[in-house]
Fold:
Amino acid sequence: MTVKKFSLALGLVALALLVAVPISTLGQESGAASSVEMKLWVRNTLRDILVDTPVDGDTVTVEIIIHNTDGSDKKVDIFLTDNLDQNWSGKNWTGVTVNGKGSVSKKFEWKPSEKEYELNATVKGDIRTEVIKSVNVKGKLPESNMVLIVPIAGIIGLLFAGVMTWWVLKQDTGTPEMRKISDAIKEGAEAFLKTQYTTIWAIALVVAGVFFVAIWLGTKSLEQGWMTALAFVLGAACSSIAGFIGMWVSIRANIRTASAARTSLNLALQIALRGGAVSGFSVVAMSLLGVAGIYYGYGMLSGDPRLTPLLIVGFGFGASFVALFAQLGGGIYTKAADVGADLVGKVEKDIPEDDPRNAAVIADLVGDNVGDCAGRGADLFESTAAENIGAMVLGIALFPILGINGIMFPLVARAFGLMATIVGVLVVSTREDGDPMAALNRGYIVTTVLAALGFFVATWEMLHSYWYFAAGLVGILTSWAFVYITQYYTESKYRPVQEIAKSSETGPATTIISGVAVGMECTAIPVIAVSIALFAAFKLGEIGAVDLGIPALAGGFYGTAMATMGMLSVCAYILAMDTFGPIADNAGGIAEMSQQPEEIRKKMDRLDAVGNTTKALTKGYAVGSAALAAFLLFSAYLEAAQLKHIQLDKVDVFIGALLGAMLVFVFSAFAIKAVGKAAFSVIVEVRRQFKEHPGIMNYTEKPDYGQAVRIVTKSALKEMIVPGVLALVLPIAIGFFLRAEALGATLMVGTISGFLLALVLNNGGGAWDNAKKFVEEFGKIKAKQLRDNPEILAEMKQRAPGIYEDLMQKARDSPDDTLIFGKTSDMHKATVVGDTVGDPFKDTAGPSLHVLIKLLSTITLVLAPLFIGTL
Amino acid sequence: MTVKKFSLALGLVALALLVAVPISTLGQESGAASSVEMKLWVRNTLRDILVDTPVDGDTVTVEIIIHNTDGSDKKVDIFLTDNLDQNWSGKNWTGVTVNGKGSVSKKFEWKPSEKEYELNATVKGDIRTEVIKSVNVKGKLPESNMVLIVPIAGIIGLLFAGVMTWWVLKQDTGTPEMRKISDAIKEGAEAFLKTQYTTIWAIALVVAGVFFVAIWLGTKSLEQGWMTALAFVLGAACSSIAGFIGMWVSIRANIRTASAARTSLNLALQIALRGGAVSGFSVVAMSLLGVAGIYYGYGMLSGDPRLTPLLIVGFGFGASFVALFAQLGGGIYTKAADVGADLVGKVEKDIPEDDPRNAAVIADLVGDNVGDCAGRGADLFESTAAENIGAMVLGIALFPILGINGIMFPLVARAFGLMATIVGVLVVSTREDGDPMAALNRGYIVTTVLAALGFFVATWEMLHSYWYFAAGLVGILTSWAFVYITQYYTESKYRPVQEIAKSSETGPATTIISGVAVGMECTAIPVIAVSIALFAAFKLGEIGAVDLGIPALAGGFYGTAMATMGMLSVCAYILAMDTFGPIADNAGGIAEMSQQPEEIRKKMDRLDAVGNTTKALTKGYAVGSAALAAFLLFSAYLEAAQLKHIQLDKVDVFIGALLGAMLVFVFSAFAIKAVGKAAFSVIVEVRRQFKEHPGIMNYTEKPDYGQAVRIVTKSALKEMIVPGVLALVLPIAIGFFLRAEALGATLMVGTISGFLLALVLNNGGGAWDNAKKFVEEFGKIKAKQLRDNPEILAEMKQRAPGIYEDLMQKARDSPDDTLIFGKTSDMHKATVVGDTVGDPFKDTAGPSLHVLIKLLSTITLVLAPLFIGTL
Structure:
């Protein structure tokens, strides 16, 4: 099998790179001399750095470079002082002319006599003046060859995605009935995406234009204006393309998965996962290539590697922008179709899920693709882009010591993670009677171990410090922690779901009450996990600061950046597992609608159940990484806004914080409402079809699936506008009226509230969903069976320890025939209400909140220069 | 009628005081000389103050006072410097011995030659040393006679409560059947309160002991230890007594209201309101007397009016402590009984609300008293105490300029508000066919106008500035804004409730979804209202700062304190309206259970509906005042913790913020779960009674009400422990491990999250409740009626503009007899689910969150001294 060999070869290349790149750079000792050099940059984006390593007795060469970013010539004076007040008198450098876009430099020798020293250079004159204290290690700034892995890994990642696509496409496409359904899904999904992207890009171009003008006028720099606007457009484009590729494959993988299930569970599993992997690889590779490309491109234009990260924040904002609307629109679509189909189908007409007589059923299957696949892809593209850029901005502060390494490290770590994922995806296989979830977990373990290995190599080679590897490991562990925490709160074998199931005995109201309580309760452990991770990563970074020769505080911040990078290094695998979900779900739907034999449908159900689990886990991972990254993005914002602190005790800052928290709630309200409104339009349509075409119910007429798809599309896109625009406009308004510090509070408190509310919505929704599945799983159990059949009771005792006693009590009190448990029992009806309520929570509002959190970070980063100072 | 005359006389006294007190103090010009005096206090609780009023050419007398709060003698040196570096050389004062508990003083003359000056005194030696900069106006510190109104108003308030109690008690107590029911409620409520207070006090005494030791050891001051502990016990005691008095009267007013309804609606209204007023007056008067008493008591002991506010924060914490458990226990009780009674009664057995066959019905009526009456009483007692103390702490910073006036002003403003409320309560009356709500509103208007008048007099006399009156007016307007906002979101004539009613057409799931969306959406306007109020009050305070001769920043903070005081000045009336609710509700229950004629029950229903409205408004008012006060309490915390700022970009501070938001969600989860668990115990009991005593259903046997009451009591008190202890322990743990600044972030972000979540829970719950009532109000409407009866349609069009079209459509599609609207229709069943879900939201978790927010403020204020500096 050629493809297998080819992809194996790719995997080997990836493995080889994991080993070869570090070896190739061995022996290249990147400078760490003991004398010291100082650079003075006119644009102050640095925080103060005080080096406390001893250079006693050494001569320090201080180089003053004045870099004029403005177009016209400037005249300046430079005054030098040091804390020892010894050698500098008379060494001032006055009457210097710096040409427009040019620079001048001069070197001074200095011999500090004590261990602790501090050098201070003041520049006065035409240029915006600021005082900068900065001392750095002399010699060529360190730059490891390892940064080469970034483009290599990006290209290999895209190649691998291509191979996987080719492999998936050449699989069997099943029976004509299957193809008919699959074609309908394909058509619906592509139509939606086309309309959605048209809408998004119409808004995006307006936004790009407005930003160009605003930043141009606000910063008085045409260059910064067009660079930010172009970066925005590129970010939006990369995100759109990555989302499109992922969905393009997934709507083709679904039918192949269904078809493969007729012969081999393993093949079906592999098609679904590899189809999903296309999404994962496109997202991460595009993000690597995009960020690195624009970084180097702008770097060449600006001539200063330190100015670039702040110019490319527009890329992250472009990604956020697309993600916001993709996730909102997709999320509204998927749940409107789902809720609408369920309410008319299951509740009103009493026909099963995915029944071909339901006109909304194709729309429902389309929804899985546009919400979970394209939406989550855009979400994680945004995460990787925004967090890379955030870490790069932080790297600027360390530039004097770490050089390009400090800025490029995040991309290198991600590149290794991508290589590791290739191997991880390829090792996944299962036996016919195996547990598909276990197979996916094996792949996850392989990916994690290899990614950790790569992370180790990268930290060692580029940062020369174990401590930062340890900080990265904290991030990797956090990703596992979030996966397990999410499982605990949403899987039926644990207490929370059983509690909900138990409360469904007393009807839908108590089901809802206990689900809300579970959702709120489940904020505790994730918050504690993130707190521990941040604290540990910060402390490890502080300790490691000595290795790097940077101040402890800067080291601590960099430690949290490492943890974020560690958590995100397995991102491609997580995304592959996530996209596995809608593919398996769709394959199940195709099998159901094309009326495949029971045995195949059972097989699909197993894959579908695994897909539900992976979807839930991905959400846990996404929200966890957003929370971990938040702290990193806060410090990037402070850099960008030239703020030292956000002080909540100022009245305008407090108001900014209040509004940030409010934005989260109001945005969620709109997202949830949007589902209700769009679902209502579906319900009306399906009802109309049933009424006008009574033949549908007895299979003599076919429902018009296309019309239902068109109605959801129109309605979902209409409803995404208000919350989307709110999320864009409120931060801008706050920045404009209350200025940068208040906007920082909006960002921070909005992020905290958003993180918690997303947890509540995701986990509450997931728990309701599984409580319903839990009640369904056992099959129908009647009172007499439970009383007289010891086997059923034994199974109950084992699998439902929390509720079997209540059920037995009820069974004793009820006539023989009363349905105590299982589908259509009163308990089941109550859990169906819970599930329906949870749908817009966990698949629309929750995931949109992840995106909102990151959008807040990127929009504030981009606009920070406009809101500096008071109005 | 003697009583009427007596209370009229009291009202006149109150009115007279409103006028007389200011006149009595006219002409007493409280010192504002242009020379300056400095005092040096060894304990630094002051922020730096720079006076920018000109004193050019004046001689300044600086008096240095060293006050030794320790028991043993100390030897110190004092060094003086000023920013002009002119007159002070050689004016140091060295080798001074200060006896234990004694003080020494010395005067210096100083003639600053420029307008801006700054004087700096350093004390070194045996005493804990700190640098203090402080300049104040010379002469006797201003102290207005108006502070005398505080004890006078407190005593008049208690007298008025006594008169109201007497008047209520002498009303007719109705028929023996009524009395039987009323006695059962009384017995249940008193038994609950007894058990509850026993539990609370057991914990309270432990807490007091622990705090005594912790503060003693932490601050190394035995005095501070016992003073804080004693203040805590006094606060807890005052709160308990106020809650007890209020409930004692309300469980006696209920039967009298029911009995009065047989003859006069006006009399019933007046009994219910005046019974409620006892609660309002006890709470506010006890709070005034308690805070003022302990302030003067401790002031005499410490000898320094500036140290006292920080010693009496324990009083606020004691009040918070009782409020937390009273509101939690009461809230759990009331909703466990309500939900339990409903689920067995209405849902399982299909018997109406308040049906005497339901064993839980007495427990339900008891619950109204212990939750809404005792619980909310404790809540607002806490508000008034905590916010008074917060404003007083802020007053310390202004002490050098405003003297005692700055510290005592909050109490004076409250005293005027209390007097105003006497008049407001007395003017409420209605005609037999009048609208009781309009009558209550008239009283509210009268109270507001008189309170504003009093506020004007107090600001003018004590602060000599219109601007601070304007800031207070902002607060008064905010209280009206919150009342109207709450009405909009929870009353059936507006869009939100109609939206929920509309979505109930598609079943309980959509009812829940749209209720949650309404809850989240409704955070927007309150947040904006609070933001505007804070901003306006701050700006007004900044402008007014010139009048006072204080720095603009300090003036701004004081402006927000004024707004809080303004909002709280009508507190007694609001509380009277709130307690009106359970009295009317209970009276309705008594009428129902004693099977009174239809006409009387209708009359009671009208009062009951008004009660529901007032209860909802009070919650809006309580949460709004908590939010407005939050900012004030933050700055008080900064004073107490000797912090300049809370910087969210530090890792430990960010973790503190995350944990604060988490606390809010987890606490709510526990509160909501507690209702579920306690309700389940009621359900089991009522089911048992129905099963073991089949005669209950056909009225041949009487259910055992007492047993149900005992079970809810036990269960509610058990369930309140975990969330209560969590709320106490988490802040302590954060303070201990992460220190004062992180704890500040916990306080701030916890408060913001708590405010928003409380809005979501209160308004969402209220909207569901009224959506149900809305569907019930019209009576039952069948399809044929709606199609053929133009009158019904017209009424629908007018009162339900949002949904009549859908209903018409449904009527056209359905057979004649289908129930389209009204009780027992499918829509109604869906709204009942919403109402049941909303119950623990709006009556347990939401109100408990108000208390939690304020508890966070008081506990952090009390413990701040322990967490200063790093571990």
Confidence is low (pLDDT under 50) at residues 22-58, 84-90, 112-117, 128-142 of chain A. Chain A touches chain B through 74 residues (CB under 8 Å). The longest helix of chain A spans residues 705-777.
